[in-house]
Write a structure and sequence with these properties.
CATH architecture of chain B: 3-Layer(aba) Sandwich
Oligomer: heterodimer
Number of strands of chain B: 4
Structural class of chain A: mainly alpha
Structural class of chain B: alpha/beta
Largest interface: A-B, 22 and 16 residues
Largest sheet of chain B: 4 strands, parallel
GO molecular function, one term (chain A): transferase activity
Number of helices of chain B: 5
Organism (chain A): Sporolactobacillus spathodeae
Protein name (chain A): Dihydroxyacetone kinase-like protein
Distance between the termini of chain B: 29 Å
Order of helices and strands of chain A: EHHHHHEHHHH
Strand order of the largest sheet of chain B: 2-1-3-4
Number of domains of chain B: 1
Domain DhaL (chain A): 5-205
Strand order of the largest sheet of chain A: 1-2
CATH class of chain B: Alpha Beta
Order of helices and strands of chain B: EHEHEHEHH
EC number (chain A): 2.7.1.-
Radius of gyration of chain A: 16 Å
Number of strands of chain A: 2
CATH topology of chain B: Rossmann fold
Helix content of chain B: 40-55%
Distance between the termini of chain A: 13 Å
């Protein structure tokens, strides 16, 4: 079980991880997109950090809602409404809640993926962040089924997201700016899937380090 | 008059469209949401919301956009709009031609439905 201050800690590590990988994400996006994913995400998560610094959250739902709005308002690219929608879906799962359990995490991954599908009119296999997020949800749900520990569930999502992101290299982009390149997008990792994997890795790493 | 909102990743694009339209029609409520608030290429939900509000009336608002995140941010702006969002419509249209036709039409006091009928043939299928 995670309490509010721990969730804030995990979101803080998420923001730091994005900042640290800004150049990497921009390089990935430069290869097949408009080359601004790192900058956009870094700017969005800088405002998430500012939101966390400001504090005053009523509960976990309120925390995710405020962070989601920061992303919607400040990212600039498609990842703004997409990550924003994911966070707002998480806020709905955690409405009025003070603490979060492993089962909530699985539900968040599921609802976030559904929200992104709806907002982006996309699905798995189209070389997007969903190719990291959906496998992460499935792996986390499996881990819950197998009665694994909370940390193992977070790790399962992290590993599956990372593998999913690498797996986008062989896919043809069908959404976003990269879709203009068609076959030429093969051989490059999707920057959105890469950032989604980083975000989920930060959650697992934060709780692993707390032990 | 029907309000017209132009959303683009680029500030120059929306300014250019407004400039072109102004040759034919000057007094139409047109609002621009080009680029991000810190001057990058991209779209900005706050700019879009402000633009919609600034031209909002009971006659309605038609929202034109260029590509990608512009559409998603326009949808999110409508989700969060305080005003009656049923009077605001995002339009699937060739950006330049559709927007200019709509601006000229609005200046001729055409209704939202009349304008939509005029630009119906300019659909690009960019709202999946």
């Amino acid at each position: 079980m995670a309490e509010l201050n721990q969730i804030i800690g995990a979101l803080r590590l998420m923001a730091e991880t994005i900042e640290k990988n800004k150049e990497h994400l921009t390089e990935l996006d430069g290869a097949i997109g408009d080359g601004d994913h790192g900058i956009n995400m870094s700017r969005g998560f800088a405002f998430v950090k500012e939101t966390l610094d400001k504090g005053g959250f009523q509960n976990a739902g309120d925390l995710f809602k405020k962070c989601g709005m920061a992303l919607v308002a400040h990212v600039g690219g498609a990842s703004g409404p997409l990550y924003g929608t994911a966070f707002l879906r998480a806020a709905m799962v955690l409405k009025d809640r003070e603490d979060v359990h492993a089962a909530d995490y699985v539900q968040i991954l599921k609802d976030a993926a559904e929200g992104i599908k709806m907002r982006g009119k996309s699905d798995r296999g189209e070389k997007t962040m969903l190719d990291a997020l959906i496998p992460a949800y499935e792996a986390a749900a499996d881990a819950v089924q197998q009665g694994k520990s909370a940390q193992e569930i977070l790790n399962a999502a992290k590993v599956a997201a990372a593998e999913g992101a690498v797996g986008t290299e062989k896919l043809v982009a069908q959404k976003g700016r990269a879709s203009y390149l068609g076959e030429r997008s093969i051989g490059h990792q999707d920057p959105g899937a890469a950032s989604a994997a980083l975000v989920l890795a930060a959650v697992a790493d934060y709780f692993a380090a707390e032990k | 008059m029907v309000g017209i909102v132009l959303i683009s990743h680029s500030k120059k694009i929306v300014e250019g469209i407004q400039e072109l339209a102004a040759q034919m029609s000057q007094d139409v409520p047109v609002a621009l949401a080009g680029g991000t608030d810190d001057g990058r290429l991209g779209t900005d939900i706050n700019k879009i919301t402000e633009a919609i509000r600034s031209v909002y009336s009971d006659d309605g608002v038609l929202v034109f956009f260029d590509m990608g995140s512009a559409y998603m941010n326009a949808q999110m702006a409508l989700d969060f709009l305080d005003e009656d969002s049923s009077k605001v419509e995002i339009i699937d249209s060739a950006f330049v031609e559709g927007a200019i036709t709509a601006i000229v039409d609005s200046g001729l006091n055409k209704s939202m439905d009349e304008i939509k009928a005029d630009i119906a043939s300019m659909k690009l299928g960019k709202m999946p």
